[in-house]
Amino acid sequence: MNNKKQQAQALLGLALLGGLIASAGTVQAGGFMTPTANTAGWGRAFGGGSMFKNDPSAAYNNPAAMAFIDKTISQFTLNYANIDIKYKGSAYDYAGNPTSNTVMDPATGELVSSTPRTGNGGQGGFEAWVPTGFMVIPINDRFAFGLSQVVPMGARTTWDEDWKGRDFAVDTRIETVGLTGSLSFKVNDEFSIGGGAILQHTKGFVSQNVDLYAAAAQSPDFGMIPFPAGQGFALMRVKVDNNSLGWFAGMTWKPTAQDTLGLNYHAKIKNKLEGKYNMYADPTSEGLMTIPVVDGKTLVELAYPGLKLYPGGANASTQLDIPANASLDWVHDFSDRLTLGASVTWTQWSSFEALTLKSNGSTIVSIPYKYKNTWMYSFGGDYKLTDDFTVRAGVAFDQTPTRNSTRDPRIPDGDRTFASLGFGYNIRAIPGLSIDGAYSRQFVETVKLKTKNVDRLGAASLDGKSEAKGEVVSLSATYAF
Amino acid sequence: MKSFKTLVCVSSFALCFGAASMASAASITPDGPFTTNSGTLVVKTPSAPGDITCNVTFGGNVSGGVATITSAQLSGNVLCSLPTLKNIPSPGWVLTANTFDPGTQTGTGTVTGVGWTITFPASNCGPGPLNVVWDEATKTLSTTGSQSLSGNCFVRSLNVKAPTLKLQ
């Protein structure tokens, strides 16, 4: 009977965790990182990290804290994210004219019409369901084992295909899902260490228009002839993915019976994404890429020596490393009912310098971003209204890694403030089962989008701003065996 | 006085033509191959929105007072490599001298068969005639003003020196 109960419990735990192995969306934070907190963490706006008692999210966020969990805990979290992003402003072609839909007479080479593009791209944000899960299994008094499924990276923006900034971005989707395993070791009752590995699958999809004529006008090899911008269309679509391995480690220290300190480090994960690109283009634009005109070379090759574009598709690769980050967490029990936590997180975003797309070894385009390292400060806590019902709240401030000079509609990120509320409830009818809920509102700084595109994308410029806001609703079910 | 001159002229047409215009039928010498120095050719073609300026060097042969251009090398920016010249090398662009004024050491002429094609974006220009002027003092062959060719094409200007040629 006892065996059957254990089997049922194990089955429930694995079901909670196994239900997560599905495609994951994104819950945006700074850059293209996403918080890996569980529902309780969202409720506290990440304050204190995973240092709260019996928090299974330690399995990924700070494995050392698993050492102080004395029973097997499995948790399934489902986050719903609704991010709203809008662009307001202007877009200009390389000559300084508003970006336009330009029609030329092929018989004469003269301008027929030029109609300015007026669309601001619509709502560039997204809605997503993001599952995460954690499981901690104490092995003995010293060791504990952890499993998790997390979404450490993700970003998404979707703009209208014919909007005025189409030469900068149309679609951007970066989605990851990571499976982790970790181990903790309790050195003594006050100190523990832990470490783990993550196997991460990343999928990326980006699209944008390439203004081939405007790019040709920037070519010194073409004599800087002022080809009118905005002719036709050449929508480049890149779809890539990769599996990558990374590691993380942490330590936990309980200097007093009321205090828990945690330090964790998640190493940079090298992530070379590979796949295909193609270009959906009008016949003339396709001809620029495919019809040999001199010595077997196309006009695109002549304008940018070494650049070959294959509308029908070709290999593509890009490097999108996950930056290293480190957090210092502190949790203090003020009473049996009140516990507060604070965290500081540093992310080495400076490792992301450019988004470079290569094909068969040669660079198609490299867009500079030059991200800067960031800090995130968070503060939150729990208050037990009853033995079974806990309320939570927290605030966090998250710096953006983007710079004014390179920020574009792909990731129009600004500093953001999280304000969160949450609850936890122990369901007495099913001993060990508890549920948590949280609501987190993101107030994102309105930021300038004032940047100029690289020559080979047409050298258009933007002069506007991005207004964004977001909300996350998080629910979790936790089962303690 | 004017009517008297006219009368004399009618009676001696050839003499009067020379006296009134100070120009005469001309020919190009010496017979044999020639090559020009590098000059400039500016054209407008439907393949591109603006004028294309190229360096050009001609080569050919003079025979019977007529110069036949059988080679033309265009250089400069990438667009200068796009045109395929019509009638080059054969039968060639034929430069015929029309007049020569010994007083000013200048003459006029016509280059026939001028034209070119570009594969993509497509242009099909000429062939057609190009009116040119010759400056014997500087040995310069040039055009005056923009001249059109069929296919919505234009030769905006041509300016090239041919040190070995002589107009007389």
TrEMBL record, chain A:
<dbReference type="GO" id="GO:0009279">
    <property type="term" value="C:cell outer membrane"/>
</dbReference>
<keyword id="KW-0472">Membrane</keyword>
<dbReference type="InterPro" id="IPR005017">
    <property type="entry name" value="OMPP1/FadL/TodX"/>
</dbReference>
<keyword id="KW-0812">Transmembrane</keyword>
<keyword id="KW-0732">Signal</keyword>
<dbReference type="Pfam" id="PF03349">
    <property type="entry name" value="Toluene_X"/>
</dbReference>
<dbReference type="GO" id="GO:0015483">
    <property type="term" value="F:long-chain fatty acid transporting porin activity"/>
</dbReference>
<keyword id="KW-1134">Transmembrane beta strand</keyword>
<comment type="similarity">
    <text>Belongs to the OmpP1/FadL family.</text>
</comment>
<protein>
    <submittedName>
        <fullName>Long-chain fatty acid transport protein</fullName>
    </submittedName>
</protein>
<feature type="signal peptide">
    <location>
        <begin position="1"/>
        <end position="29"/>
    </location>
</feature>
<keyword id="KW-0998">Cell outer membrane</keyword>
From TrEMBL, chain B:
<feature type="signal peptide">
    <location>
        <begin position="1"/>
        <end position="25"/>
    </location>
</feature>
<keyword id="KW-0732">Signal</keyword>
<protein>
    <recommendedName>
        <fullName>Protein activator of alkane oxidation PraB</fullName>
    </recommendedName>
</protein>
